Amino acid sequence: MRRLAPVLREDGVELDLISLVRTILAACKDISFRVGQAELSGVLGSTLDENIQGETQKKLDVLSNQLLKDMLLESGFVRAIASEEEDFIVEGEHGGRFLVAFDPLDGSSNIDINSLTGTIFSILPVPDNKLAGDAITESDFLQPGRNQVASGYVMYGPSTILALTTGKGVKLYTLDKTHGSFLLTNENVSIPEETQEFAINASNQHSWQAPMQRYVRDLLDGKNGVRGKRFNMRWVACMVGDVHRILCRGGIFTYPVHTDNQAQPHKLRLLYEANPMGLLIEQAGGLVSTGEQNILDIQPTELHQRVPVILGSKQEVQVCLGYHD
Ligand code: AFP
């Protein structure tokens, strides 16, 4: 079967893509409501199951995954999905133009303490060599982050916020809960190039490699150290929250290599976290790297692949990378 040419909006964004993002938002509004209901509707706490990453699944992880999965697969725009909570990809409509990878509820450890959580999504094109009707396989998802046609997150905090890029800058929208619609609240997010704020889980310090040890030590030395200025530290334990702060006021975020865990030296997932956040950060003028290469240039080798992540304000990321040279 031949493919139909995509219908474009005036600004060049494909109409099907807009409809797909709306589908994601419909699911996220539901997730936002359930996160808010929390104890009142019995959705806090864990299930007895583990996901493929060997992590215990929270009830809200499972619920959020189901909502997104069902709505995306029924939408008609999605050929297949991959989720942090699913072992394998799941196929949808044969005519769909897009593949969607998502982390349904990032920041699981925050769920039960009424702290920040979020949904992260990455939208990829169905590879050109796939015709409508061809089966989609895991390898179709193994595309570099640069191929993403859109990415974003919805953050469930005091307000519910969408950060979205379709490759033309980053926009923020706030959910107006009285009307149920996401309203544009920042149409051109720009990350300050310099910062005095860093985010790292310092409890892992013993297992960082030498360059990260030296970099963080110099940050902590403050005004009297080589950096000559005082740095502040923040850690939300939810990448969505940390990235959102960086989009709002700059900063550097890193989850580096763990040398003491040979079996799993990296924490963050390439397809569900690093790539979608990477595109947002780059589109807002920041930098993203593993310490060795730009995250968006990585050729993925597995669906649930994990990578080291350094991202944020351009100049600060460059300084950090200088320690890795
Ligand atoms: P989940 O995907 O299990 O919710 O984990 C969240 C996360 O991947 C990311 O959002 C945080 O930055 C990071 O883990 C927090 O990790 P620590 O618990 O090791 O600080």
From TrEMBL:
Stored InterPro entries: FBPase_C_dom, FBPase_class-1, FBPase_N, FBPtase
Alphabetical list of Pfam families matching this protein: FBPase, FBPase_C
Organism: Psychrosphaera saromensis
Annotated GO MF terms: fructose 1,6-bisphosphate 1-phosphatase activity; magnesium ion binding
Cofactor: Mg(2+)
Cofactor note: Binds 2 magnesium ions per subunit.
Keyword Cytoplasm tagged: yes
Alphabetized UniProt keyword annotations: Carbohydrate metabolism, Cytoplasm, Hydrolase, Magnesium, Metal-binding
A single BP term in Gene Ontology: gluconeogenesis
Catalytic activity: beta-D-fructose 1,6-bisphosphate + H2O = beta-D-fructose 6-phosphate + phosphate
Keyword Transferase: no
Chain ranges of the Fructose-1-6-bisphosphatase class 1 C-terminal domain: 191-322
Record protein name field: Fructose-1,6-bisphosphatase class 1
A GO CC term assigned to this protein in UniProt: cytosol
Gene this chain is encoded by: fbp
